[in-house]
From TrEMBL:
<keyword id="KW-0067">ATP-binding</keyword>
<keyword id="KW-0812">Transmembrane</keyword>
<dbReference type="Pfam" id="PF01061">
    <property type="entry name" value="ABC2_membrane"/>
</dbReference>
<keyword id="KW-1133">Transmembrane helix</keyword>
<dbReference type="GO" id="GO:0016020">
    <property type="term" value="C:membrane"/>
</dbReference>
<dbReference type="GO" id="GO:0140359">
    <property type="term" value="F:ABC-type transporter activity"/>
</dbReference>
<dbReference type="GO" id="GO:0005524">
    <property type="term" value="F:ATP binding"/>
</dbReference>
<protein>
    <submittedName>
        <fullName>Uncharacterized protein</fullName>
    </submittedName>
</protein>
<keyword id="KW-0472">Membrane</keyword>
<dbReference type="InterPro" id="IPR013525">
    <property type="entry name" value="ABC2_TM"/>
</dbReference>
<dbReference type="Pfam" id="PF00005">
    <property type="entry name" value="ABC_tran"/>
</dbReference>
<dbReference type="InterPro" id="IPR027417">
    <property type="entry name" value="P-loop_NTPase"/>
</dbReference>
<dbReference type="InterPro" id="IPR003439">
    <property type="entry name" value="ABC_transporter-like_ATP-bd"/>
</dbReference>
<keyword id="KW-0813">Transport</keyword>
<dbReference type="InterPro" id="IPR050352">
    <property type="entry name" value="ABCG_transporters"/>
</dbReference>
<keyword id="KW-0547">Nucleotide-binding</keyword>
<dbReference type="GO" id="GO:0016887">
    <property type="term" value="F:ATP hydrolysis activity"/>
</dbReference>
Length: 619
């Protein structure tokens, strides 16, 4: 293969002056950059033999040019996705050795996140949005904030047209339970997400999997048109239709992590593979080229002869020509790159837009939709409504009955009032756990920072909770005829609810799956009950457990509520007063609310740190 580029390093920048992609869109200038890789090894601790490393890629070398579409093919498990992930910087485990150069330079993870597009094999979309909204949401997060909204809208409309998605523009994406757009439309929407910034490089993992042949051809024709526009395209592909395969320019075939062919697609590839295969099968009419090639290498792989094919390639003239080409490309200086591309390659921040813009956008698209979604609102308001009605009707009017036999009832209702938000936290866990794939993909795509995502989730919940808690706490407070201030009663309830939510997020963040989170959260909350001060008086707790009551946020919720109820008029009871009986004599309700708020900050920080550093996907 030879390069036929006119610009150095096969980079084309057109007449772009900005590095943010905005002007690039306006001019529709061609883009793209050559990707070179040489002596690429990728290894992980072996599953088969303890203490050994498994090399999933071995001395892999090649290059992909701008304006061209390269296919990564091979039998299942040959390392196609591994190579794609290594090149796209999506690996977060294992050791990569060798050279990777984008336009002659080693790419930074930030460059890869911001300026390359990656289409995952499985769709990760937001079911509550329509196709148009999904693309606009991504555009607002990934295109520069300096770009006017009208220009972003235009870019999305253009993309919808290019992807032939105009017909389902306003159809909800949906999910498994409530079907929305079709599989082909979902795939094209996913491609649209990767294209929203007009990336110079597009990686696609099995873009046609699960699609019928007509839709596959349609999708790949569209992808090919991008290559014609200058984008460098690299796709893993399993069993393409003849037409799909004919769209590719070059082909890299892997078996057991080794290259058995790298060169142009076409008859020369078949001839080469036949020569390299120890027992080539006949190319009978009816075979499609891709199918035949994959069959050939798969059979060699099954017969344990794949190394022979790889050795054949490594000793071929084709290999020498490719190696010479790679060395020549690598020796070309990258100083001659256009300034905008130099800037892109040197970018250091992982996101295009600042955190506050990300937060605004997430609230604009996600919160506003969630607040109109019964599935979202139901579990968040329904349980509070039911339980508060039960409490209110059960304890109706007892709050101002200051007789000895009633003090225990008042203590109990206040205790239940603050334990419920802690137990209710369970309904907030799925929001984080079930969305993990989407979060990981959007984070890898450089859409937002972890803190932005977490803050947007807090806004989602805290706004709704604030509104709901005002109404609920009002009818409970006045229905039971509790003493003290309603504002304090509501505030304690609200802060405890907030603690429950952020605690749920922390538990969701540390749990590998929903089952573990669902077991962990109630277990922890039950331990809090014992140390809240109502079931066991503080001064009677054994010395070796007392410390736990200080880090039990229910202690501060209940203490504050009791001080609100009995602070002004602490009645005599069992030879002392009610507050002294429960070791709450010196409690200041506002100070306790302050302590309560500290737990919110601590749980938030714990959730943030965990999500920042925990690898949810090992790939
Ligand atoms: N820790 C490990 N130890 C040994 N082998 C491993 C380990 N992790 C992954 N592998 C193997 O590495 C290979 C690479 O997988 P990869 O997903 O890249 O293949 P693929 O060609 O994309 O396959 P498919 O077409 O089925 O998606 C697989 O054969 C897998 O079994």
């Amino acid at each position: 293969m030879t390069a036929n580029s006119t610009l150095p390093l096969d980079v084309e920048g057109g007449n772009i002056s900005g590095h943010d992609g905005y002007q690039r869109d306006k001019t529709f200038a061609p883009m793209g950059m050559r990707i070179i890789f040489k002596d690429l090894d990728y290894s992980v601790p072996s599953h088969h033999k303890r203490g050994e490393r498994a090399f999933l890629l071995k001395k892999v070398a090649g290059y992909f040019d701008a304006h061209q579409m390269a296919a990564l093919m091979g039998p299942s498990g040959s390392g196609k996705t591994t190579l794609l992930d290594v090149l796209a910087g999506r690996k977060n485990a294992g050791v990569t050795e060798g050279t990777i150069a984008f336009a002659g330079q080693k790419p930074t993870p930030q460059f890869l996140r911001r300026y390359t597009g990656y289409v995952e094999q499985f769709d990760t979309l937001l079911g509550i949005l329509t196709v148009y909204e999904m693309l606009m949401y991504t555009a607002e997060l990934k295109r520069p904030i300096s770009e006017p909204l009208a220009s972003k809208k235009q870019a999305v409309e253009d993309l919808l047209e290019k992807l032939t998605l105009t017909r389902c523009r306003d159809v909800k994406i949906g999910n498994v339970l409530s079907k929305g757009i079709s599989g082909g439309q979902a795939k094209r929407t996913n491609i649209g997400i990767a294209l929203i910034t007009n990336p110079r490089v597009l990686f696609l993992d099995e873009p046609t999997s699960g699609l019928d042949s007509f839709t596959s051809n349609e999708v790949m024709t569209m992808v090919k048109s991008l290559a014609a526009g200058g984008v460098t395209i690299c796709a893993t592909i399993h069993s393409p239709t003849s037409y799909c395969f004919s769209l590719f320019d070059s082909l890299i075939m892997l078996v057991k992590g080794r290259v058995v062919y790298f060169g142009p697609r076409g008859h020369s590839a078949i001839e080469f593979a036949q020569s390299g295969c120890p027992h080539p099968k006949e190319y009978v009419p009816g075979y499609n080229d891709a199918e035949y090639l994959v069959d050939l290498v798969t059979e060699a792989d099954i017969a344990g002869e794949s190394d022979k094919m790889a050795d054949f390639y490594a000793s071929s003239q084709l290999f020498l020509d490719n190696a010479a080409c790679i060395d020549q490309y690598l020796s070309e200086s990258s100083d001659v790159l256009p300034a905008n591309i130099q800037k892109e390659l040197a970018v250091r921040s992982a996101t295009v837009t600042p955190w506050w813009w990300g937060l605004k956008t997430l609230v604009k698209y996600r919160t506003s939709k969630n607040y109109r979604d019964g599935e979202f609102l139901g579990p968040r308001i329904g349980d509070k409504l039911l339980i508060s009605l039960l409490i209110m009707t059960l304890y109706l009017g007892i709050g101002d009955e200051l007789r000895e036999s009633n003090y225990i009832n008042i203590g109990a209702v206040l205790f239940m009032w603050c334990t419920l938000p802690a137990f209710g936290a369970a309904s907030y866990v799925p929001a984080l756990v079930l969305e993990r794939n989407l979060f990981t993909r959007e984070r890898n795509d450089g859409l937002y920072l972890v803190v932005t995502y977490l803050l947007s989730k807090m806004v989602d919940e805290l706004l709704l909770t604030a509104l709901a808690s005002v109404g609920i706490s009002a009818y409970v407070f006045y229905g039971i005829q509790l003493q003290g201030e309603w504002v304090a009663f509501w505030l304690v309830y609200y802060i405890t609810l907030c603690n429950g939510i952020v605690l749920a997020y922390f538990v969701a963040a540390i749990s590998p799956n929903l089952d573990i989170a669902n077991a962990l959260l109630p277990t922890y909350v039950v331990t809090l009950l014992f140390f809240g001060g109502f079931l066991f008086r503080f001064h009677e707790m054994p010395k070796w457990w007392k410390w736990y009551s200080y880090i039990d946020f229910l202690r501060y919720s209940w203490g504050s509520l009791m001080a609100n109820q009995f602070g002004e008029n602490d009645p005599e009871w069992l030879g002392t007063t009610v507050l002294s009986y429960y070791s709450l004599g010196s409690v200041n309700k506002w100070r306790y609310m302050g302590f309560l708020s500290l737990f919110f900050i601590v749980f938030f920080l714990l959730a943030w740190i965990t999500m920042q550093f925990k690898k949810y996907q090992s790939r």
